[in-house]
Amino acid sequence: MELPSIHLENVSVRYGDRDVLKDINISLNEQRIGVIGANGAGKSTLSRLLNGLVLPTEGSVRIGDLTTSQHAKQIRRQVGFVFQNPANQIIMPIVSDDIAFGLKNLSLPKAERTQRVNETLHELNISHLADRESHTLSGGEQQMVALASVLAMRPETIIFDEPTTMLDLRNRLAFQHEISKLSQRAIVVTHDLEILEDFERVLVITDGTVAFDGQPADAIAHYRQWSHA
Amino acid sequence: MIAANNTSYLALIKPGWKFGALLVLSIALYLINSWTVLLSIFIVSVVLLLTARVNFKQIRLPLISLAVILSVVFILLGIQTDWLNALRSVLRLLTMCLLAYSVSLTTKFEAMLELFQQVASPVRFVGGNPAQIALALSMTIRFIPELKKVYVEVREAQHARGLANNPLAVTVPLVIRSLRIADETAEALDARGYDSEPAAFRR
Predict the structure, then answer these.
(1) Which of residues 36-55 of A touch B (CB under 8 A)?
(2) Quick one: which of A203, A200, A214 has its CA closest to A37?
(3) Do A106 and A77 contact (CB within 8 A), yes or no?
(4) B11-26 pLDDT per residue, tens
(5) What digits encode the pLDDT tens for the residues A105-140?
């Protein structure tokens, strides 16, 4: 799959007087990219910039030929987002209806929606959850449903914002396995450093800037060193 | 009460017909005064529910609650008016509830929403958006259990801090956490391509 490049050019984000991100210049072409950093460093803001949920105060974010400030809706079709707390991401009371929700927004015909819902549930081995009420799911099941709802829309890139924070070890490993299987580009914001072992590139965000950009082992070593300082 | 998948004969009937019949029958029940006729219709409603392949675990608790409430109604009405009148009233209410369970538990939630959207379509003439109203309705149903969960968590936290009977201590964090949930859900709606802009204002 040919994945469009993501370019952040002179990107700054300011909330009131506070600079959350400062003059970020990066291009993302790899298939597995990790983002780590301390709480409040700007990781979540950076991830939200990539599908237009947050727009830059200065600079531009380009996905292929599209910029988030002008083409947010098109970009959201290409870039899916899995939030930290899946309970707040699941919109509909029934699992299969929730997965179909995004497809309805893409104006797909009902037959295709049903087919895609079934395919996605099958891919993730959660077909047994199709008819369950969303609020009765466990945390791990909810996170899988959240991933299914994004995968069903067949985005080219999926951003995960701390996806394993609320999961136990077993569900974390299962979720990690699903991420590793994805054919899409995955950009994972996380505190869970083990997830990043097989990644191609890891960014360390510190005080709104990219403090390190490189191989996972080096990035993690840099982050550990910074944390102990 | 919602259902995702039901394979009974009732599930094959179009939602519009089922809800229409429920409405007509509910009105008709109040035009019937013979307790024997009411009892017959009640038996039919029981048969309908029993043959509708519903998950009885799902309705056990609501049925117990209903039985308790209707017992109180029966006793109060019996004392205030007469026992035959109380029986008629209870039979009507019970029949309506059982019919409503049969209809709602054999209709897919998505189909119910579509029907609701059709019924609410005249609101377009006064600037309303039926799709948005339907989404609001489904999200209300979706988030009631979540808010209940938050309420229990907040109450437990306040109990642990010795604020057992302080409504303000529960209300303030509950409202703040509810607003945070609303904020995150709004982001999720955006991320999943939901277009909240009314059609008339789209460029």
Answers:
(1) 48, 51, 53
(2) A203
(3) yes
(4) 889 989 999 999 999 9
(5) 888 999 999 999 999 999 999 999 998 989 889 988
- A215 three-class SS: coil
Residue of A nearest to B184 (CA): A88
Tell me if chain A has a CB within 8 Å of the CB of B80.
no
Predicted structure pTM score: 0.82
Q: Which residues in chain B are contacts of A145 at CB distance < 8 A?
A: none
- The C-alpha atoms of residue A132 and residue A121 are separated, in whole angstroms, by 12
The model's pLDDT over A14-27, given as tens digits with 9 standing for 90+, comes to: 998 899 999 999 99
CB of A92 less than 8 A from some CB of B: yes
Residue contact B188–A89, C-beta within 8 A: yes
Distance (Å) from the alpha carbon of A66 to chain B's nearest alpha carbon:
16
What ipTM does the predicted assembly reach?
0.84
Greatest CA span in chain B, whole angstroms? 65
Helix ranges restricted to H, B51-166: 56-80, 83-104, 109-119, 130-160
In this prediction, residue A127 carries a pLDDT of 93
- Nearest CA to A10 out of A60, A84, A76, A85 is that of A60
Name the residue with tokens 């099958």: A122
